[in-house]
Amino acid sequence: MTVYDIVKSRLKEIPHNEKLLSLKYESLDYDNSENQLFLEEERRMSHMGFRCLEIRRWVICGLIGFLTGLIACLIDIAVEELAGYKYSAVKQNIEKFTEFGGLSISLILWAALNSAFVMVGAIAVAFFEPIAAGSGIPQIKCYLNGVKIPCVVRLKTLAIKVFGVICSVAGGLAVGKEGPMIHSGAVVAAGVSQGRSTSLKKDFKIFEYFRRDTEKRDFVSAGAAAGVSAAFGAPVGGVLFSLEEGASFWNQMLTWRIFFASMISTFTLNFFLSIYHGKPGELSSPGLINFGRFDSDHKRQLLKRLKKSMSFLHFMLQLSLSLSLSLSLSLWYIHRPCLQVMEAMLVAAVTATVAFAMIYFSNDCQPLGQDSTEEYPLQLFCADGEYNSMATAFFNTPERSVRSLFHNPPGSYNPLTLGVFTLVYFVLAVWTYGLTVSAGVFIPSLLIGAAWGRLFGILLSTITSSQSVSIWADPGKYALIGAAAQLGGIVRMTLSLTVIMVEATGNVTYGFPIMLVLMTAKIVGDYFIEGLYDIHIKLQSVPFLHWDAPPTSHWLTAREVMSSPVTCFNRVERVGRIVDVLSNTSTNHNGFPVVAHTTENEEPGKICGLILRSQLIVLLKHKVFVERASSRLSQRRLQLKDFRDAYPRFPPIQSIHVSQDERECMMDLNEFMNPTPYTVPQETSLPRVFKLFRALGLRHLVVVDDENRVVGLVTRKDLARYHLGKDGLEELQLAQT
């Protein structure tokens, strides 16, 4: 079999299809079930009890920020130490063989070290926790939208994510660690807020009240914001990121708690990093970017030039990268773990080889001054007292390369160096995205944008002969604007990214030009294609609900989109029928309307309530039968604690043994069902159904007729399968992918 045949056979196995909607994803219950047990507990709680709950929420947010900051500190220190060891070893080797020949040994050493680091990280991801691949931001975005992504917020995922991103960045791939920090913060929040670890089977018996999807969702939003804050030193930007890009549900008090978590995260990171660097008194965040301020005249001149000459180049490049990244993700997908590891190692080796070749053939030599900030300056074939400028971009971690493009004085790079670097790193970033490694796209995007932004600034000062222009056309400023445009065009963030960049620079005067390019990038990009995270979600066939229903869907009604017929239960139902319905693998329903009476001819009954599969499983597990209660065989009355203890990994129905005699018993559902479920008439329009479902975070919406009889059930997949395509309203096909 030829290589072409092997690749062709692998491509046929791609499970991702943006025209399909996967049935494997379940929804989260963001609507509280207000049954008798819940109402009794709420009524027993005093005003002081509610105040204590609010204090606990603040304590949890503080813990989330502290632990997220610690993890970010661990990642930073580990990457710095490993990358420092690698680049020091390679630098010494290059200096040794430059004069006497044998630089091929240096190339082999560089490629081997890259491949070794990446191999370890890829093995951890591919064989132990595949969900830890990538940045994790699309998965967290889906979780906050109400989609249950398997294993996305587990402790094992966190461990593999942290270990994997350290290996990926230290391995020299065109990746960043900022996206995984956001995912890590979300996992920390999901674990801390529950007061236990289901993976370690350890229950600390604290925060039990928050063991439900609604509370957990809010804390995950705080964790994602804390991750952004730790990554960029931007607490306000973290809050806005969680609001703009992540959270689907929001309230005012949540804003302050999330900001508190972000502040604690930033303080924790800076405190421990200052100790690590031997400067415990310096707790202010230097951020990723650090500039002086513009004066007013410089600012006005820069804005005029931005409006006239930068837009087209900025946004065509960001658009091309977005298209290329999505194409890479959709066309190149390998399933087998061993091949995934080999692919990652190949990319790592090629990255080192290409970088070495670029440095080797570059003749861009710059003087090495006393105040030079170069971490690993390579002289190679340059004269004494000079260093290779191409090595500053390639022979560094991506974060340091971005910083050098922002901070190095004019004349540090010639245009050819920046042009070649931009094109080569662009190709490497496209190839790297989608590998089975823990990695983010933030820093590669910033690096590419900073390179061509600085190139544009150099060309502008070269073309313009006016002395006044040459003063304000600092290439570093254009590197900042280009980096913002590039990242904004890929992820389509506007307000949050503006604040992140402003906080990182420490200069509010950059706010308006950054917002200008980000808004233009979003408008131009959205005209052609969706943002990268939305593309990723669509390719995974996730039933994601956007803010509004398709604009041309008013002619559809609840009757046309609902699922029917509906499996209903009586108020007092036979145990055998409940077990049979839950065991039916062909339907696998998770919510069941409770009606006044069901007949043999399947006529709909009047709605009395709604009960969930998870509740029924807990009832079956504890043998809550009418006969046992009447004969006083039951030891105690079931409480909400029993349901919270089983959350979130409720046992499967196959693990619950029900004898033949017990199948004939009866189960009273009145106490446990939600007696006031949300319902809509069957003539309700789709946009109205969508708005109600999306705004309230529902999992099930019962459709009734004029006599309040159940005729259908609307779920997330019923709404997500309608979207606006090129030819108008389209309906996605449901598939078990």
Automatic annotation (TrEMBL):
This is Chloride channel protein. It is a multi-pass membrane protein. CDD domains: CBS_pair_voltage-gated_CLC_euk_bac (cd04591), ClC_6_like (cd03685). It holds the Pfam family CBS. PANTHER family: CHLORIDE CHANNEL PROTEIN CLC FAMILY MEMBER (PTHR11689), H(+)_CL(-) EXCHANGE TRANSPORTER 7 (PTHR11689:SF136). Belongs to the chloride channel (TC 2.A.49) family. The keyword Repeat applies. Residues 673-731 form the CBS domain. The chain crosses the membrane at residues 58-79, 107-128, 219-242, 254-276, 312-335, 341-361, 413-433, 439-457, 478-502, 508-529. One of its GO terms (cellular component) is lysosomal membrane. InterPro entries: CBS_dom, CBS_dom_sf, CIC-7, Cl-channel/antiporter, Cl-channel_core, ClC. It is found in: Membrane. It comes from the Eukaryota. It comes from Cyprinus carpio (Common carp). One of its GO terms (molecular function) is chloride:proton antiporter activity. Keywords: CBS domain, Chloride, Ion transport, Membrane, Repeat, Transmembrane, Transmembrane helix, Transport.
